[in-house]
Design brief:
The chain has about 300 residues and is of the alpha/beta class. The protein has two domains: about 240 residues, TIM Barrel; about 35 residues, no CATH class. It is built from 13 helices and eight strands. α7 links the parallel β4 and β5. α3 crosses α5 and α5 runs parallel beside α6. The radius of gyration is 24 Å and the shape is elongated. Bound molecules: 3-methyl-2-oxobutanoic acid.
Length: about 300
């Protein structure tokens, strides 16, 4: 199959109700989600035909250079959500609630989620299981659609003792299924499953009537999500095994910058065609002042 045949896209789900009903078991196409953090990224994702753009708090690590996701604030997230929204993508924009923006009180949670909605998100995502039920219910009551996030939840990096695959033992796997059911029951319209064994993701997917979107969760989810910079190879650091790189943009960008530097240093840039000129008449009169090179020099 050629690339152009492959890129013929499935009908897109751009609304929350449309996403909510996209179960592969019911004949739906898998959902495609990718992160983006700015307008050009959103345009690239949208032109590629993704269903959902997640303005993820991975922003902290892949754009802002932090070691974990705990460093970004609701203001950071709103700033980047607004940049994505300005691209007016037809993909659904999911705003990620950062750490501590939904942990203190339901009032705080709704106010922070509203900041992302007002910045242009159509729904929000938050991490965690049963502990989050009051917050999820408050958001749903405020008409803010919520996507859940279970398994390896990066905002719990300190509590988990590192970025570790979750649900590997029987009890933990069954607990994950129970948490997923509780989140769906509370009104989450979709669930991200991160860093869980494939069979556990399959069990969760079969147990809930909302779509699961996996990252490091195997092929049996109702969709997949990857981080923009990982997918495009914008960084060359060692990536987790679930990352598939579809481009090597870091190497391409370094080669392009090096070529530019070489052209500047050797006088090949800018060329005559890349320079602005005055008319011959003006050039001649300027020559009288002795400070301009003759035309064409
Ligand atoms: O912030 C993020 O990029 C995420 C994805 C890994 C799901 O939450």
């Amino acid at each position: 199959m050629s690339n152009s045949q492959q890129s013929v896209s499935a009908p897109r789900a751009r609304t929350v109700p449309a996403v909510r009903s996209r179960k592969v078991a019911d004949g739906g196409d898998p959902l495609v989600m990718v992160t983006a953090y700015d307008a050009p990224g959103a345009r690239i994702a949208d032109e590629a035909g993704v269903d959902l753009i997640l303005v993820g708090d991975s922003l902290a690590m892949v754009v802002l250079g932090y070691e974990d996701t705990l460093q970004v604030t609701i203001d950071d997230m709103a700033h980047h959500t607004a940049a994505v929204a300005r691209a007016k993508p037809s993909a659904l924009i999911v705003g990620d609630l950062p750490w501590l923006s939904y942990h203190v009180s339901t009032e705080d949670t709704v106010r922070n989620a509203a900041a992302l909605i007002r910045a242009g998100a159509q729904c929000v995502k938050l991490e965690g299981g049963r502990k989050r039920l009051p917050m999820i219910e408050a958001l749903v009551a405020a008409e803010i659609p919520v996507m859940g996030h279970l398994g390896l939840t990066p905002q719990s990096v300190n509590a988990m003792g590192g970025f570790k695959v979750q649900g590997k033992q029987t009890e933990a796997a069954l607990e994950l299924v129970a948490e997923a059911k509780a989140l769906a029951h509370a009104g989450c319209f979709a669930l991200v499953l991160e860093g869980v064994p494939d069979v556990v993701a399959a069990m969760v997917t079969a147990a809930v009537d909302v779509p699961t979107i996996g990252i490091g969760a195997g092929p049996h989810c109702d969709g997949q999500v990857l981080v923009y910079h990982d997918l495009l190879g914008i960084e060359d650091r060692v990536a987790p095994k679930f990352v598939r790189r579809y481009a090597d943009q870091k190497a391409d960008a370094v080669a392009a910058m090096a070529a530019y530097a070489d052209d500047v240093r050797t006088g090949r840039f800018p060329s005559d065609a890349e320079s602005y000129h005055v008319s011959d008449e003006v050039a001649e009169s300027l020559e009288l002042y002795g400070s301009t090179p003759p035309p064409g020099a």
